[in-house]
Design brief:
- With about 150 residues, this protein is mainly alpha-helical.
- It has helices spanning about 5-10, 50-60, 80-90, 95-115, 115-130, 135-145; strands spanning about 70-75, 145-150.
- The protein has a domain at about 70-150.
- The chain has a two-stranded antiparallel sheet.
- Helix 3 packs antiparallel against helix 4 (about 95-115) and helix 4 runs antiparallel to helix 5 (about 115-130).
């Protein structure tokens, strides 16, 4: 019986090492000081031009900056609007089921979209026959006092 290690062992042949190639761009060191040549020319590789794909991202993310100011209803006067408009809509010519809807819709359009959108909504409801002409005129006159630029 013999060892598996001894049976499988193969004698190694001596290999020759390849000589290390010297770099052409490295200057030989100064024999006296042992420092590198500080005046050596440094090879600068030209930077590859970037594709437009990367730059496109910055253009897509542009913000709007300041928005153009629009006439809207003044939010600070909401309570004044709520009570005064409710009194105006208490007119017997305005059907009961439309009063709260009109109250909220007029304020929402005037506050979020624009003052003109609220006036158009009042005119639209007057044309539909929901608001009498006198109540519509009073509401439009009242809204003029509540408008502001923002």
């Amino acid at each position: 019986a013999y060892s598996c290690v001894a049976a499988l062992a193969v004698p190694l042949e001596p290999s020759t090492e390849l000589p290390v190639a010297s770099r052409e761009d490295d200057a030989p060191e100064s024999p006296s000081t042992g420092t590198q040549n500080v005046f050596r020319q440094i090879a600068i590789k030209p930077v590859a031009k970037t594709t437009g794909q990367r730059r496109r991202g910055s253009r897509e993310k542009k913000g709007g900056g300041r928005q153009k100011q629009v006439k809207k209803l003044n939010r600070q006067k909401y309570l004044e609007y709520k009570y005064a408009a409710r009194d105006m809509l208490a007119d017997p010519g305005v059907p009961e089921e439309h009063r709260s809807n009109l109250l909220g819709q007029i304020w929402a359009k005037g506050e979020r979209i624009s003052y003109e959108a609220a006036l158009e909504y009042i005119e639209e409801k007057e044309a539909e026959g929901i608001l009498p002409a006198t109540v519509a005129a009073d509401l439009q006159r009242f809204l003029r006092r509540l408008e502001t630029r923002r």
